[in-house]
Amino acid sequence: MTARLEPILATSPTRLMVVSYLSGCDRAEFQAVQEYCGLTAPHMSKQATVLADLGYVEIHKGYAGKRPRTWLSLTAAGRTALQGHLSALQEIATNAAAAAAERSG
């Protein structure tokens, strides 16, 4: 196996869901990511902070009109980590399918 699972994503389906969601857009409002992942605000905040501390996510604070808002965006490092993780998962699945075919063939 040449690809490597990203430990921070492999050990938390929630973090994997957050970075996967963010990979599909330039940035997303905190609440949209929270709702997509089915998290409470405090849990979403904790996960965003963990990912930001790793340099995988940037947290942007500002206002939409007079209302405070928080946006999240996936960094280049976050995209690289996600792609590597997905490649490792694909490699695992491919190797498992080949091994199963070999055993039954």
Automatic annotation (TrEMBL):
<dbReference type="InterPro" id="IPR036388">
    <property type="entry name" value="WH-like_DNA-bd_sf"/>
</dbReference>
<dbReference type="Pfam" id="PF13601">
    <property type="entry name" value="HTH_34"/>
</dbReference>
<feature type="domain" description="Winged helix DNA-binding">
    <location>
        <begin position="15"/>
        <end position="92"/>
    </location>
</feature>
<protein>
    <submittedName>
        <fullName>MarR family transcriptional regulator</fullName>
    </submittedName>
</protein>
<dbReference type="InterPro" id="IPR036390">
    <property type="entry name" value="WH_DNA-bd_sf"/>
</dbReference>
<dbReference type="InterPro" id="IPR027395">
    <property type="entry name" value="WH_DNA-bd_dom"/>
</dbReference>
